[in-house]
Amino acid sequence: MLFRGWPKDKLAQFCFNTDGPYWEVCDNYYGVSDKAALRSFFTLRPAARDDFSHWTAGGGSKGKSLQRNALFSLARHLVWSSGLWRGKAFYGWLDALSPKIVVIQSGDTAFTHNLARKIARRYDAKLVFFNTEGTYFLKKNFLYKGPLDCIFFPIYRRIYRKAYRRAMQAASYCVYHHEMIKRDNDRVFNVPGCVIHTSTEVKTSSRPFDTEHPVISYFGNFAYGRDEALIEAGSFLQKLPGKPVIRVFGKADETQASRLTQADGIDYRGFIPYEDVVKEMDSSDILLHMESQDEYYAENLRYGFSTKIADSLASGKPFVVYSSPGIACAEYLSKNECALVTWDEATFTDAIRAVIEDRETRERLVERGLAVVSSNHNGKKNTAKFHEALLSLIKT
């Protein structure tokens, strides 16, 4: 949470989809749901504000995630861009704030870029991007598959790229999730910025490595063919002495769960809450991160950088990655020499064998991982860096 420690009376958030308010960081919210915006579109009446005051700690739910295909995204863009959801209450809320800085969490929605840019212009505020995705640079469909994608996706992509480009041209500063996404944006846009990686609070384990029966674990989702990568890796491990298995934790759909459960070398444990993830990391000997080798997913995976990477490095466990070399996380880990990055059966099995059999390899990976966490993934350092960047904008 990069805004942690920022004065609450100087912070407010507009949102249209949320897992719940973070009261310890911010207590001034203006929420409008997609349903409320759609209702305004047909009734021509402004949407009522949701300030989330009915939420309690751990309460509430954002509901089922919408599968945004190109046609849906076009319709959604039309609804929100109409501005019919806005009214006196919304502008009164903004007027009371009179923001000096507008921060946008950049994603795949065109209307949010337009809204942030217009609010910043209205109040002569500095526009700051927090950019974790490389959607602007993707040519293939980065949305869910839907009807007539061949027609609707190029239209939506054109609208999105225009909105992103105009917002970047108005931006004063950009904060990027990793070096690759900053590098690619810098080639196109002349906007000052910095990289602030995901922070972690995971404590380093003191559990000794079990060379006889090492526990190998994966924590994460199964999007973009990661379940297929896990099944491949599990089959590779069955050729090693002792036939190690991969404990797999994550939320899978019925098809994925069935395939994982039936696969050799996979022990699928299902979804567990984050606090249990940390405990299971501690009970592991080797941690894995997986990405599909399928060229079909290559472009959409290019900017992928799992939030679990920082946690894995901080855990004090040897970290092995199975991924195409051109993906952002693989490039980062390889450059910093804090994980063994593999891309086929030979390199993967060699890496697992080296970690199990060679103490120096294990110690080197753990030492490099903890050094990288101290440098790039420390919460206090990252928050201070973010606050310093914002304060410097206010002074200019």
Q: If helices are DSSP runs of H or I spanning 4 or more residues, what is the number of helices? A: 15
- How far the N terminus sits from the C terminus, by CA atoms, comes to 25 Å
Average pLDDT confidence is: 92
Number of domains: 2
Structural class: alpha/beta
Beta strand %: 5-15%
The total strand number stands at 12
What is the strand arrangement across the widest sheet? 9-8-7-10-11-12
In helices, the fraction of residues equals 40-55%
CATH level 1 class label of the largest domain: Alpha Beta
Described by the principal axes of the CA atoms, the overall outline is globular
CATH structural architecture of the largest domain? 3-Layer(aba) Sandwich
CATH topology of the largest domain: Rossmann fold
The Rg value, from CA coordinates, equals 23 Å
Q: Report the uncertain regions.
A: 57-63
The succession of helices and strands, N to C, reads: EEHHHEHEHEHEEHEHEHEHHEHEHHH
What does the largest sheet look like?
Answer: 6 strands, parallel
Describe this protein's structure.
The protein is an alpha/beta fold. It has two domains: 8-199 and 378-395, Rossmann fold (3-Layer(aba) Sandwich), CATH 3.40.50; 216-376, Rossmann fold, CATH 3.40.50. The chain is 44% helix and 13% strand. The strands form three sheets. The protein has a six-stranded parallel β-sheet with strand order 9-8-7-10-11-12, sandwiched between helices. A four-stranded parallel β-sheet has the order 3-4-5-6, sandwiched between helices. Strand 8 (246-249), helix 8 and strand 9 (266-270) form a beta-alpha-beta unit. The longest helix has 22 residues, at 149-170. It is globular, with a radius of gyration of 23 Å. 35% of the residues are buried.
